[in-house]
Amino acid sequence: MLNKRVYLDGAIIIINDFDINSPLVFDIKQDSPFIKLHFEIEGKINFVPNNSTDIAITIENGQYNFFYLPVVNGVLNWHSGKRKSVEIECSEEFIRKIFKNDFYKISGSFGIALKEKTSFKMWEKGEKIPKVLKTILDNVIKNSQEKETDLVYWEYEIIQILLYMFSKMKDRKEINSLILLSGIEQEQINRVETTLRKNIQNSITVEELALKIGMNRYKLNRNFKQVYGEPIFHYLTRIRMEKAKEILSQKKMNISEVAYEVGYKNPQHFTVAFKKYFGYVPSKLK
User: Fold this and answer.
1) What residues contact 122, with CB distance under 8 A and at least 6 apart?
2) Lesser CB count within 10 Å: N end or C end of the chain?
């Protein structure tokens, strides 16, 4: 059983992993604004407002949603069975701190809802959790089981998730017009992702990847981003940095050895990349 809360300045991360023998019902009332990003990895929850003019929220197994309620007054239901979730509650100030002067340029209808103090949810129904966020969530759950985890890590993970979410707000029209991949194309992209993980120590080009699966470079880049939510080499950098952080946390290798393990021949280049990604130098973990 896991039920953990991590408190940051302006945000709370709630990680749940337990079984529910029978449905649980909670009366929820809150007069202050409520902003939440909710990932229901396993299980099902739904919120039914007491006021019929407010929005109802249902998030089922493998789905997520982002919503804002000026006030909260209703009933929250946890359905019975396995429940595994990551929930991020944050203040408007926390989000503004991330995006600064660009907030209203990229926040779309969410920003308008904040201005007008009207309810907002990103999708009418819960959206399937994309693979790029599933990887981050798996790491969050894994790290939540540690006795101590640097708060810098937690803040970084929230920021990464919010950056992804706000990029989707910016191009929601584009999402609705995405081309569906065939079964063969999906399998090809999965092969590319496997190749990236197997070649974490080696340099590899988009041309080599395209040749490997028999797809042109443009189509490969487009399809990979559609499946994994980010460009190929952003994804490769992320898995390299996450692998490096994991090795450094185990304290079994020095920084030069870790740099080599994740594909950097020059330890200084690795240190620069690590700091750019996490916001602190790798020696902090040592």
Assistant:
1) 65, 66, 67, 110, 165, 168, 169
2) N
Tokens 């197997």 belong to residue: 198
Question: How many structural domains comprise the chain?
Answer: 2
Residues 6+ apart with CB under 8 A from 266: 259
User: 276: closest CA among 247, 246, 249, 237?
Assistant: 237
CATH number of residue 108's parent domain? 2.60.120.10
Note whether 71 and 152 are same-domain residues.
Answer: yes
* Per-block mean pLDDT, blocks of 10 residues, the chain (286 long): 89 94 93 95 94 88 95 94 95 88 78 88 90 88 79 85 79 48 84 91 89 89 81 88 87 89 92 87 80
Q: Domain range for residue 108? A: 2-171
Picking from 118, 138, 171, the residue at the C-terminal end of a domain is: 171
Q: How far apart are the C-alpha atoms of 61 and 159, rounded to whole Å? A: 24
Q: Do you know the residue count of the chain?
A: 286
Q: Residue 254 has what DSSP assignment?
A: -
